[in-house]
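Extended Data, panel c. Modelled sequence:
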Amino acid sequence: MTRRGIERTLAALAAVIGWAGLALQFWLILQNFGVVEGAWRFLAFFTILANVGTAIVASAMATGSRGLATPRVRYAAAVSIALVGLVYSLWLRKTWDPQGLQKLADHALHDAVPVLFLGAWVASLHEQLKWRDILWALVPPVFYLVYALARGSADGFYAYWFLNPATQTPAQIGTSIAVLLVAVALLAAVLNTIDHWIDDVDDEGQVKNRGMADPEDAQRPPKGNGLVEEADRESFPASDPPSWTLGRDN
């Protein structure tokens, strides 16, 4: 399978699993809150919004629609969904034990989609990012933080404890936000470094493929004669839980 084929296959899997996981999680939350409140609660979580964005970008990559999957957009989506997987695996997974369909949705959105999309991103053709593009990776988390604090102040529900002024002082909230943004910047720097490495490897491969043949070979007369020689000359080469569980509060 070609590199583009690997990219599209992994992106298609990420898109299908992502949309299916989102639909399942939405259905599960409706069982507890109803349509209106459930939809509002559903959209409170960074995990959900990051998966929606990733599913959109993955769908564009799978179908070859580059308008919604430019290098910067793919990069920002990769950083956000990697953040979802890392934070959940390192800090949140051990705090609850989902069962049944909730466990299926949980694995789809926190495990399968991050791994598949990052695989598609690595396989995609890389147009070397600039270091200043780290700012693009910070856009989704910054937008979410502003959005989460604004909607929390309106209805009192904060999807994540470290943003909740009822349990955290302003200084603690500020510290949590600063730590989170530094973590995102470091993660973005790692992926940016990977992008540079892949781009350098691609450039080296292209240079080798364009390498010139031995000049002496070009001066040697072709071997063979008659019809075989004529056919050879005329031929050409072919190429080409807790609050973030989305359940009801106790």
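Residues 2 and 171 are 51 Å apart (CA to CA). This feature is highlighted in the accompanying rendering.
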